[in-house]
UniProtKB/TrEMBL annotation:
GO terms for molecular function: histidinol-phosphate transaminase activity; pyridoxal phosphate binding. Its EC number is 2.6.1.9. The keyword Membrane does not apply. Pathway: Amino-acid biosynthesis; L-histidine biosynthesis; L-histidine from 5-phospho-alpha-D-ribose 1-diphosphate: step 7/9. Belongs to the class-II pyridoxal-phosphate-dependent aminotransferase family. Histidinol-phosphate aminotransferase subfamily. Residues 33-355 form the Aminotransferase class I/classII large domain. Homodimer. It comes from the Bacteria. This is Histidinol-phosphate aminotransferase. One of its GO terms (biological process) is L-histidine biosynthetic process. Keywords: Amino-acid biosynthesis, Aminotransferase, Histidine biosynthesis, Pyridoxal phosphate, Transferase. The modification N6-(pyridoxal phosphate)lysine is found at K224.
């Protein structure tokens, strides 16, 4: 039987490439000691207050969560200096991106994003429209003037997606440049700013711009710096009118009681975040030093990962994985010479550098 696609753009989609689990790696390669540096997770874990918060909610597992997530929204509003009616919770920021594209775009609309930006932008866009527009990057970063020109010259442009800091390159855009960009974008075009890694560059936060510009939506995640990747919790901040629409169209009970409790505890423990940021800065420098000693080219990063040029990304990725070191190949981003390496624990970084030295030789 031939299955007809409801939306022809879906036929262009390629599934997001998941990391292999430790069980899969053990089964395929017989590995027992595995170092995972592929998904930009917090290797130090999460705040101890998170564990206590989750434990306190274990007696409520038979009950549905607060559908509005009001307690978490209030904690976020207090932290961000906005109103709870501006916040929408999501099962990770990925779900929110899908919610935004489904709510505001259709098959005749164009969604603009940058080359070398997070692959989910293409997935979310093509799920709605066949008319996506990728703009060439400049020095591995968003080329804002070129993106602005594309937005202004593209009929039916409905949305432009920007990542700051950018995944997978680690590059950043100056906030002043973003403000100039937003001012020149037509008011009917949504500007979605993905700040999944903003904790590593907090001065670049654009949450305050949602108070002034009705067409700006900021996405945030608890999966990276806060160490809550397994709980799948993120949020969007926007004008109240946009948030109202997104709350209409999101799935009921899309975020869990445990995620609410964990994220509320996490956002209140900024001491933990500050400690982790200091740790990440120190270990990233150790990674830079090791790569310098190997004579390997890399892109300076404002995040908790580094993109590294190893000549043949897939070949080196495979050689590393066979030695129990898991990184992310960049061939899917059109960067076949590169891999992306998360900033891990000191022993993990040393293991990666030693193994990389072996496979490069």
């Amino acid at each position: 039987m031939t299955i007809q696609s409801v939306n022809h753009s879906i036929e262009q989609l390629k599934a997001y490439e998941m990391d292999k689990s430790n069980e899969e790696l053990t089964r395929e390669y017989g590995l027992g000691d595995i170092v995972k540096l592929a998904s930009n997770e917090n290797p130090t874990g999460c705040s101890p207050h998170v564990t206590l918060a989750i434990t306190s909610k274990l007696g409520e597992l038979s009950r549905y969560p607060d559908g509005a997530g009001q307690g978490l929204k209030q904690a976020l509003a207090d932290f961000l200096g906005c109103e709870t009616k501006q916040i929408v919770l999501g099962n990770g920021s990925n779900e929110l991106l899908n919610n935004i594209t489904a709510s505001f775009a259709d098959g005749d609309d164009v969604i603009v994003y940058s080359q070398y930006a997070f692959s989910d932008y293409e997935l979310a866009s093509l799920g709605i429209s066949e008319r996506t527009q990728q703009v060439a990057a400049k020095n591995f970063a968003h080329d804002l003037p070129a993106m602005l020109e594309t937005v202004n010259q593209t009929a039916n442009c409905k949305m432009v997606i920007i990542t700051n800091p950018n995944n997978p390159t680690g590059t950043v855009l100056a906030k002043d440049d973003l403000i100039k960009f937003i001012k020149k974008v037509p008011s009917e075009v949504l500007v979605v700013i993905d700040e999944a890694y903003i904790e590593f560059a907090p001065t670049l936060s654009c949450v305050d711009l949602t108070q002034e510009y009705d067409n700006v939506i900021v996405l945030r995640s608890f999966s990276k710096a806060y160490g809550l990747a397994a709980l799948r919790i993120g949020y969007a901040v926007s004008s109240a009118s946009i948030a109202e629409i997104l709350n209409y169209t999101r799935q009921s009970f899309n975020t869990s009681t445990l995620a609410h409790a964990a994220a509320t505890a996490a956002i209140k423990d900024q001491h933990f975040i500050n400690q982790y940021l200091a740790f990440n800065h120190e270990q990233k420098q150790a990674l830079y030093d090791g790569l310098d000693s190997l004579g390997v080219v890399y892109v300076k990063s404002a995040t908790n990962f580094v993109m590294v040029n190893v000549g043949d990304g897939m070949d080196i990725y495979q050689s590393l994985i066979e030695q129990g070191v898991v990184v992310r190949p960049m061939v899917g981003y059109g960067l076949p010479a590169w891999i992306r390496v998360s900033v891990g624990l000191p022993e993990e970084i040393n293991r990666f550098l030693d193994t990389l030295a072996q496979v490069l030789s």
